[in-house]
Amino acid sequence: MSHVETALVVFACVFGSALFGLYLRTKLPEHHLSDESISAVKLAVGLIATMAALVLGLLVSSAKNTFDTVSNEVVHSAASIIFLDRVLAKYGPETKGVRDLYKQRVGMTIQIIASAEPAQLAKLRGLEALRRAESLQLKLEALSPRSEVQRQLQASAIQIIGEVLNARQLAMLQASGSPPLPLLISLVLWLAIILCAFGLSAPANATVIVALFLGALSTSGAIFLILEMNTPLDGVITVSLEPLREALTMLGQ
């Protein structure tokens, strides 16, 4: 199920609960809608609303941390990619083949991430993609330095490409996360109860229905944002790939 579909389901559940509250108000006996009864309902709903607000804030904060971490890893990877290419350029013309292959692999990776296709992104997290990246590391290890300077440059290049691989794998793994399903279900249930109680304590008129509609729309929108920021490499809300594209234009220079 896509994030849009999930948000629509949440909206249907929450707004449907609000409409059910309005309907229930017309069917309950009068003493169930007394001031004392409504006050008790409002106290219970206040407790549920507090728990829902805490969980919603926790999920938003967690999703934002995931988004920021992946964004930082992209910027860090772009800087490391440029640095590695410059180290190989200093090594000498012997690394031209490695640099050309490296530029090709970086361009292919950017193209796959920019496509935002889940199947292609899953391949980047797979063993085959990891082996292709490791083959570059093996090519660097196979270099035969002829001087102490080249030996130091080779060691630096091997270290940098290791950092690039670690950063890429970390970003790919974090970008495939999702909020815990039981927590998400509990949040939606609490929101549905809150909107139902709002409908129960208000008369059914256009103003109330519009207000409940906007409340349900806002909560489902928040769920949508949480899901989107937990997958920052695909979907509507994605991290910027401009640092990687800029790095690609500088490779091989």
TrEMBL record:
The chain crosses the membrane at residues 7-26, 38-60, 181-200, 206-227. Keywords: Membrane, Transmembrane, Transmembrane helix. The keyword Glycosyltransferase does not apply. This is DUF4239 domain-containing protein. It comes from Crenobacter oryzisoli.
